[in-house]
Design a protein that fits this description.
- The structure is a single chain.
- By secondary structure, the chain is of the alpha+beta class.
- It folds into two domains: 169 residues, no CATH class; 214 residues, Homeodomain-like (Arc Repressor Mutant, subunit A, Orthogonal Bundle).
- It has 18 helices and five strands.
- The protein has a five-stranded mixed β-sheet with strand order 1-4-3-2-5.
- The longest helix has 24 residues.
- 36% of the residues are buried.
């Protein structure tokens, strides 16, 4: 009896959620059983949307992906149409799948989608129905998609999750981009959200780190790709963020050399990313990195000589550095340079250099597939075991565990 009441309560919540969304967007919300069979009656629009979803799945086992976890899955089809799939469990077993969509992240012409459907073998009737449906489908920002996913998951499970908990799945053809001519999209994100993010970087505002999940970390600033290639669009968006963040960081007091070096490093990491989930992790790490560095600069008054020496070290973390060479760069004797550096930074030269190398190693662990031995050598540690010992002391976990857990450089793991 209690289970039935719970089901009825969830159904009421879903209906209310559907009604609330309908005040802003024409989005479909349907429910399927654990074998992906539609439950309840369906409208003509819902039937067409279902056909569009299933025609994207011949080579993609979406059901297996959905049932492999408890959090929502964002599915992108080869036609750049997207759906949110939220699993509902009972007694540890998958019971229902709630599907929100389809929708787009960019302006896709109905003609372009129809051409893609024709290539996929869709009937003329389905293509006609699809064109009628597509003309009414909403174009959602990345931030709005994340919000809907978190709300729908909470409605079903009463569990609060983060944006970083979302899962991503694509039709095998969806990330290759569309060869069809697409109309230009002149939407360049939400100005106020962009300015708030840049302010946080410029001021070294650690609230960005404490509340990183309330910010749409990708998709809110600039869209420079040809529409139809979601992964490329997201990469461009993160790279635009990197550029704007580097400028804001310089305005906040970070040296241009350090800011541009960071920007270049994140550009490379973004280009190597192969999925939306990877990009989300890189983006969050990047935001936190810029904010922390600006915060450190603004709260630590350094002389121009020591600040220049710090910037030099950060640009040459992968090179062999000695106190003698750094003192020569600063124009001081080794003894005077070491004393002055310790007095201003509160750290020895060797300790500062080790900390910065560990921070960069953490970024490499998060954003590349280099093995730990390669990272240790690259960061000038004499052995993998020595690197591992230092990393564990600094972050509280081993490099392999850090990478496995997908940890970001958060305050709960850093010791400084």
């Amino acid at each position: 009896m209690g289970g039935r009441k719970s089901m009825e309560k969830t159904e009421e919540k879903l209906n209310l959620f559907k009604e609330m969304i309908s005040t802003c967007h024409q989005l479909l919300l349907c429910t399927y059983d654990h074998d992906f069979f539609r439950l309840g009656n369906e409208t003509e629009e819902e039937r067409t949307a279902e056909e569009l979803l299933f025609i994207s799945l011949p080579d993609a086992n979406l059901l297996e992906e959905v049932s492999s976890g408890t959090t929502p899955v964002l599915f992108t089809s080869r036609f750049s149409m997207m759906w949110l799939l939220c699993p509902e469990y009972e007694g540890g077993s998958l019971k229902l799948i709630h599907v929100l969509g389809p929708f787009f992240m960019d302006d896709i012409s109905a003609r372009a989608v129809s051409a893609g459907l024709a290539e996929a073998g869709a009937t003329f009737t389905l293509r006609q129905k699809a064109e009628n449906l597509i003309s009414r489908l909403p174009v959602l920002s990345w931030g709005r998609i994340q919000e809907y996913a978190l709300m729908l998951h909470y409605l079903i499970t009463e569990e609060k999750i983060r944006q970083s908990d979302l899962r991503f799945f694509s039709d095998s053809s969806s990330e290759t981009g569309s060869s069809q001519e697409q109309p230009a999209n002149d939407t360049h994100g939400t100005y106020l959200a962009e300015q708030e993010m840049l302010r946080m970087v410029r001021e070294g505002d650690l609230e960005l780190i404490r509340h990183i999940d309330r910010i749409a970390v990708t998709g809110s600033i600039g869209q420079l790709a040809e529409t139809g290639d979601t992964l490329r669009q997201m990469k461009n968006s993160v790279q635009v963020c990197a550029t704007l963040f580097s400028r804001a960081a310089i305005e906040g007091g970070l040296s241009p050399e350090t800011a541009y070096t960071l920007c270049d490093m994140y550009f490379q990491s973004v280009e190597k990313a192969g999925s939306l989930s990877e990009l989300t992790g890189i983006s969050q790490t990047m935001h936190q990195d810029f904010v922390r560095r600006v915060h450190a600069v603004r709260t630590q008054q350094l002389s121009k000589t020591i600040e220049s020496a710090c910037s030099y070290m950060e640009r040459h973390l992968e090179d062999e550095l000695s106190i003698a060479s750094l003192a020569a760069y600063a124009g001081y004797t080794e003894y005077y340079f070491s004393k002055k550096f310790k007095r201003e930074t509160g750290m020895s030269v060797a300790g500062y250099l080790r900390q910065k190398r560990l921070e960069k190693a953490a970024i490499l662990l998060r954003s590349t597939d280099l093995d730990i031995q390669q990272i240790a050598i690259r960061m000038q540690f004499c052995s993998q075991s020595y690197f591992t010992d230092n990393f564990r002391r600094h972050y509280g976990v081993s490099p392999s565990q850090y990478r496995k857990d997908g940890l970001l450089c958060s305050e709960s793991y850093a010791t400084h």
